[in-house]
Structures are given as structure tokens and as C-alpha cells.
Hints:
Layout: E1 4-7, H1 17-32, E2 36-41, H2 51-64, E3 73-74, H3 79-91, E4 95-98, H4 102-110, H5 127-135, E5 141-144, H6 146-153, E6 160-163, E7 173-176, E8 186-189, E9 193-194, H7 196-206, E10 211-215, H8 221-232, E11 238-242, H9 262-267, H10 272-278
Parallel strand pairs: 1-2, 2-3, 10-11
Antiparallel strand pairs: 4-5, 5-8, 6-7, 8-9
Helix pairs in contact: 7-8
Amino acid sequence: MSLVTRFAPSPTGRLHRGHAFSALTAHRAAQGAGGRFLLRIEDIDFTRCRPEFETGIYEDLAWLGLSWETPVRRQSEHMADYEAALETLRGRGLAYRCFRTRKEIAESAASAPHGPGPAFRGEPHSPQEEARRLAAGEPFAWRLSLEAAERALGGFGSLVFLEEGEGPDGRRGVMAARPQLAGDIVLARKDVGVAYHLAVVVDDALQGITHVIRGQDLFEATHVQRLLQALLGLPTPVYRHHRLLTGPDGRRFAKRDRSETLAELRAAGVTPAQLRKEMGFE
């Protein structure tokens, strides 16, 4: 089986060193195995994604010397695929409408008597109450019911995935998936449509991704993604989580912290070869 991997950024800002490290890691793995490297644009969050940031992704990756297959899959052009997956879950009674706001859920966790409570677990309203709220125009999210999912699978004991990279505490090998840690995750919202977890498992299956190579900050996401793969009958890729680059202050590079971007490095005269050497790719 030929290795197929991907780099899947969201165009919500310019790329930084951390993105470069992840893209180069995945690209090198594909080259080393004689496999394929795909670029995917995860632009389903219409409230934050911008065309200029997508253009910047192509510019930055080309500057790094990477190449990828075309056409590039842009999530915003494939919403029907995600809606079909959501409808499958709804049709099997695995998803429910949740009218609680983020603030209400956060307040509920904060008010737990022994500190922050466990991950959110909810349940559907009665048909009458749900109809009343819908008629009133109250916003809602579709959430995955862990209780229903556990019944459908006969428990989570058989959910495992293979970690070939390095999970938290250096763990690797066959890992038991623990989707209960995430609670009843959001599958879709009115404002941004389908949520990340559902879209990514559908994309990976449709694109034939055999190896998901990404940063350790996404390791915990693997647990619930493994559950969605099982519920939707999708294949499970091999996972390789890699270390995260950190700056002089010890904090990992992140868009929200306004980390120095690749465009800024380029403007300052840094060459791709210098950056690759700095990150251990030369």
C-alpha cells in the first residue's frame, strides 16, 4: 500500500514556523516512501477564513520548495459530502439538537462542586420542547451522542488506532481510543456549518489518506475521529504525531499569539534553505 498523506491548513492567518515544520515532515515522509503528498484547504469556518490567507498558503509552501497534487481539495466546495455523513448519523439516532450555548456549557462545568466537571454529555429534548425551541428560532448545534454511539458499537473497547509517531509522554504503538474524554462533540453549527472532526474524517476517507502526519496538539482529536470512522464505516489511517516547535519563550508557535510568519521571515531575507536547516531538514 502506497503512503498517502496530507497537509491541511485553515486559511485563518498566515503560516508560521510550526506550519512549515508540519508540512515539511509530511512531505518528506511521502517522498521517502515513494508515496503521495496532498494539500487540503480546510476552509469551512466561513467566519474566519479569508481568500488572501489561502493565497498566502500557496505562496509560502511554494517558497519552501514543496509541490503537491492538483486540484487541491477545498472543503467549502464539498459541503454535500459532510452533510451526507451528518445525515447518516442523524438517521441512526446518533446525533441530537443541542440548544445550550457555549457560555452555558462553560458555566455548568465551572460550577461543578469539585472543580471543572467532565466533558459535556447531553441528551435530546422531548419532541414537544424541541419543537417549541425551533419555532422560537433558537440556535442549536448538532452533537454526537456518546451514549447512543456506545450502544451502536457495543462499547468502545474495540476502538484502537496505530500511533507511529510520538503521542503525549512518548506513547506509540496500538492505542486505545477514548472518545469519552471529549464528551458529546459538536458535529455542525448554524454559523459555520459542519465542524472540524466530521469534515476531516470524511476528507481523509475520500482522499485515500493512509497516514495522518500532524502535530502533537492534535493527538487528542484522534480519539473522537476514530469513533466517527467506526460509526460511518470509514477506514482508519495510521497516525504519526510529531513534536511541536517552540519559540525562545518555550511556547509553541501559534496564529493566536501572532507568531512570526513565513512571509515576515521571507521579507527579512531568510532563505528556504536556512529555515529548513534550522528545523533539521538539511
